[in-house]
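Lab notebook, bench 4. We co-purified these components, and the gel suggests they stay together. Before we commit to crystallization screens, I want a quick structural picture of the whole thing.
Request: model the full complex, all chains together.
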Amino acid sequence: MSNRVSLKDIAQKVGVSTALVSYVLNGLEKEKRVGEKVVIQIREAARELNYQPNQIARSLRRGSTKTIGLIVFDISNPFSAQITRVIEDEAVKNGFTVIFGSSDENKQKSEALIDTFLYRQVDGFIIAPVEGTENQIAGLIKKGIPVVLIDRYFLQLNVSHVILDNFKATFDATIHLIQQGYKQIKMVAWLTSSTHMQERVRGYKEAMRINDLQAEINVIEVPLSILKLETEAFIEMKLQEMSHMDALLFATNSLTLAGMYCINKLGLKVPQKLGIIGFDGSEAFDFFYAPLSYVEQPLNEIGTKAASVLIGLINGDKEIVQHVVQPVLNIRNSS
Amino acid sequence: MSNRVSLKDIAQKVGVSTALVSYVLNGLEKEKRVGEKVVIQIREAARELNYQPNQIARSLRRGSTKTIGLIVFDISNPFSAQITRVIEDEAVKNGFTVIFGSSDENKQKSEALIDTFLYRQVDGFIIAPVEGTENQIAGLIKKGIPVVLIDRYFLQLNVSHVILDNFKATFDATIHLIQQGYKQIKMVAWLTSSTHMQERVRGYKEAMRINDLQAEINVIEVPLSILKLETEAFIEMKLQEMSHMDALLFATNSLTLAGMYCINKLGLKVPQKLGIIGFDGSEAFDFFYAPLSYVEQPLNEIGTKAASVLIGLINGDKEIVQHVVQPVLNIRNSS
DNA sequence: TTGAAAGCGTTACCAA
DNA sequence: TTGGTAACGCTTTCAA
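Here is the predicted assembly.
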């Protein structure tokens, strides 16, 4: 009972060529000066046969699919999911559909996804790029395919991106901790050479430095290769080794959550014995016994901007847009 | 610098027809008995020219897109996001790509998404169906398009689905509360005639009934139309009106979270004065001062099963599969 | 063993 | 002004 009605069926029924039907159904009847009665007949027939245009055929012909390929780290992660939602809305508003994939921070998966999306002729990409995939991104650019990076970028690559002011994020957070009287402030970060992580570490260090606290600078670097459950154990171990420490600044959401479990387990008193600032929001932060202060990324702005820049590029904009959004420091009971 | 290399380019370069190239690049050289040197030449040329097959053209020709259309309520909601991830993995494993959209529990959006995905010729749908969209789903079935519903289903509709045993979920939870000595157990649910919600309410009522607690049955019904922030205020109001109550059972994740905010605000002592059981997991549950007991849906099973059933249908299975998964009751400090 | 050619459903060029 | 018809890139049948 498949409803495969094509332009040809309508054309036959009305007794005209498919061209006319196409014009009318695309609203070009004025421009192409199609006879009035023919227009009405075609409209009528289309409704009667319940005609549904075939986007695949249209895409093949037009050379554009009205599809955006989105690559995030993990769609089940709230950060990815929220930004995906914002991108979806902006895409739909502009008549685009989103196909997505999760890279799991894995180079091979990233490449496989890019290839799949290329085969499917996406009009452009929004990518949260995995470390070490400069060449994959560069390859897209060389092919002339519109790309916007989010969350992270590559210094050597002249590509549009929308990212957080990572330096300012941790700089402000550290300054706040110092103002609250904390001095032995340690940071928990991922061990990676990614620019965004380097910038977050630099923000912390710089804030410490200009307050004459160099001696206290100490970054707990968690290897990326570690499994989720091990993260907690690793941080716990490091915290116990730490001889003096009165505040902790976390570099990402996942590290914050792992840290919260540790702090609960070790029974550290927040904020009296230990000040904490987390990264990104989470409902879990609200229910920690001392609701967490945290650095908030304006996800709406990032997503909307990324999508609109990409759609601009798809529509022919030539200008590379590198947009930096400002973090918001939400202060609550934990610092 | 666009890399538009087609079969024809390779054919020309090697001096053969596009048919041969197609065979070789699809691995049919044995079956079609293509000459050995020709095979090698074609492979070589394809690599040299960096040939990328055009899925759009292939889809048009084959009449299948290897694409799954996924409609969830809201991709930014962790429940949707997690199940999406599972579906993604299963899809990728089988060579499918996922296009998705958020319905926001809105009939119009649901219909628009279905239409968009139809135009795009998806091979099948996985849908968490919005209340009142029976006809939209029925329309797909009538067209012969494979559909699998998740989370909810329609009694009148004979469609494949994968859902939770909703009755058992709340029945078991209520029984547990009763066994812990709670008697004045109230339920917080959405006000809707959806089967899944009705079943959850029924599970609660039945457990109360068989324990001679009919008199205590009381369902706080939150209107669906309410805004997120209002949910909290509404529940708070109802809780204050409640003259006697010693336990609360929440019917969904969002209601649980809203309830947790209220309980914190009203300063109710959990579990001494009030037992709580939530629905679905959440990191926030872990950090509530009395870590929450909750009914867990096996999301992995739901997603995997839904995807595999759908792929089965796409590949020609005729059988309608209606799969019910079992809830897991996780008991912790709050009950 | 190979190739010509017919489509898939649409759009858009160009001829009348 | 209107309407054929070629072409988008691929698969697949049929003939050579």
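Chain B has three domains: 7-53, 65-164+299-325, 166-296. Worth comparing against the SEC data before the next meeting. Chain B has a mean pLDDT of 94.
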